[in-house]
Amino acid sequence: MALEPYDHLSDADFNRLASFIHGYSGIKMPLSKKSMVEGRLRRRVRAVGANSLDEYCDYLFTDDGIATEAISLIDAVSTNKTDFFREPDHFRYLATEAVPALIRQGLVGRSAPLKVWSAAASVGAEAYTIAMVMRELADRQSPFRTQIVATDICTEVLKTAVSGIYPHAMIAPVPEDMRHRYLMRGKGPMTGNVRMIPELRAMVTARRVNLMERPYPVDRDMHVVFCRNILIYFDRPTQAAVLTELCSHLLPGGYLFMGHSETLAGFNLPLRQVTATVFMREDGR
Prior knowledge:
Layout: H1 11-25, H2 34-48, H3 53-60, H4 63-77, H5 89-104, E1 114-119, H6 125-140, E2 146-152, H7 155-163, E3 165-167, H8 176-182, E4 183-185, E5 193-196, H9 198-201, E6 204-208, E7 222-227, H10 236-248, E8 250-258, E9 271-275, E10 278-281
Parallel strand pairs: 1-2, 1-7, 2-6, 7-8
Antiparallel strand pairs: 3-5, 4-5, 8-10, 9-10
């Protein structure tokens, strides 16, 4: 069934959708994003057998619609921009400063794995970048294991994180030597793709986490939390609530990495800045 090109959401239905999306996921959806939302929802209109966007909304806001369609709706409207080695200074700091400090303190070592949470992980590029960098560090220094939990609200992107399969064009930022060590080239029907080696895939556990639903189903003894480029989609009260909860999952002396367009200014949190957009959890708060 093809939708008519002039099919649009009424302002009333867009406002209902925006309110629901914000309440469910924390994502702000201003009127300026109406065309984007319309475009992304047209596939969902077809999937549920509706005849128009407004009819889709009528279905969504029933008990059955909310129960069966909410996750697919959020999958459709979520922004999942990610790259390998995005904001590379963070990974340099992780390898040269943060993890060596954790090792010196005895928080990480042969019997104590490094525990990292990649929040808003999308397809897993951030998590596997961390895995590659930590594997390199462990090979150069005293060996330690790394456990990475990659979470996202979007179920579709997490399937990619689990498989560890990516189009070859996406790995351009990965250094050539790391490509040889950690990536397998696809053959036959998989030509044009690469896959993370089994050792790296074993380091990453992917699960769905909605940052609006607290408490988070993640351990509270993480050494490192990456939460980058997601807070910009939240309003200030939501940012404060999410950051407070993230801190409760971070060990004293652990590190929080944020996006370069994000700030902690005005928040009362047990963190002190150690370098640009990197913060350390302090004791006693």
